[in-house]
């Protein structure tokens, strides 16, 4: 039997308890949503930083626009306000160490997160693009919408880097995953 | 060597050609972004419809908010304007037929897309939730932002349905996929 938490149907006996339950259950539900892993790069030189994201998505193909969310408490958000450029780098299955670095594991901050990987740029004022990413997109910030402590960023795609083959890095239920080699039935 | 398409660096010899190239390359890059597959349900009774999405994401955990994009040319967008409720259903690996139905394959429209699956609701005016989804979220539309032919929808999560176990359905490079059984190194 499914485990149903119905928030709205009956009057709460304890509103705070109920809210906490909803938040916890929402967090659990979102752990079930698998995602490809990307590293988002922002800033320049010693000010550059970035973060690991599973929330990059295509908003529109014509014109080419990406959408992603950035926590307003992050260092990346500060840099993005200074320089309205960012790079989206879709990671390969063997990029787990890099994903951890950009997630801040081990306490890595800013420029330290870039170590051990090769970076390039696709335009004169573009953010860093990972040379061996599965795909990379050099973006200009078109619009930012602030909602619930997060910046919803719409990016205008300027340049694309593509590699013909490779397996993607996935994240699901709090762990890195890979795609099954044999295609699903 | 990576295949780099640098859109902004040199003056275009043929602007239209260049634009077409960017769009095509952006499409290819986005095919590399793996995603969990969800069915989004909208409307009620004979007017109900919905679509298959790989673009659902968590915007905020506290408060619980989801974000997704809906094409403005879709029947789902019409229904969502009439009834500001929707369901997000994270699919299992064995839900490929349902994913195809909600993607409109075989020409299925509206209510026809729901056939062959068991549905429930989590609140009195909620959208349909798939009984055996990996996880389901009953949402109320908090805000809609229209950009580039798409509605960016922020959903307030009201109720959650959770199943303890199961494998997710993935989409990558234009095909359904599954997660590798053995966890990545």
Describe the structure.
The structure is a homodimer of 185-residue chains. With 185 residues, chain A is of the alpha+beta class. Chain A has one domain: Pnp Oxidase, Chain A, CATH 2.30.110. In chain A, 17% of the residues lie in helices and 37% in strands. Chain A has 3 helices and 13 strands, in the order E-H-E-E-E-E-E-H-E-H-E-E-E-E-E-E. The two termini of chain A are 27 Å apart. Chains A and B meet through strand 1, helix 1, strand 2, strand 5 and strand 6 of A and strand 1, helix 1, strand 2, strand 5 and strand 6 of B. Strand 1 of chain A pairs antiparallel with strand 11 of chain B, so a sheet runs across the interface.
Secondary-structure element series of chain A: EHEEEEEHEHEEEEEE
| Beta fraction of chain A | 35-45%
- Helix-and-strand structural type of chain A: alpha+beta
What would CATH call the architecture of chain A? Roll
Count of separate structural domains of chain A: 1
**CATH fold-level label of chain A:** Pnp Oxidase, Chain A
Which pair of protein chains has the largest interface, and what are the residue counts? A-B, 78 and 78 residues
**In what order do the strands lie side by side in the largest sheet of chain A?**
4-3-7-10-11-6-5
Biggest sheet statistics of chain A: 7 strands, antiparallel
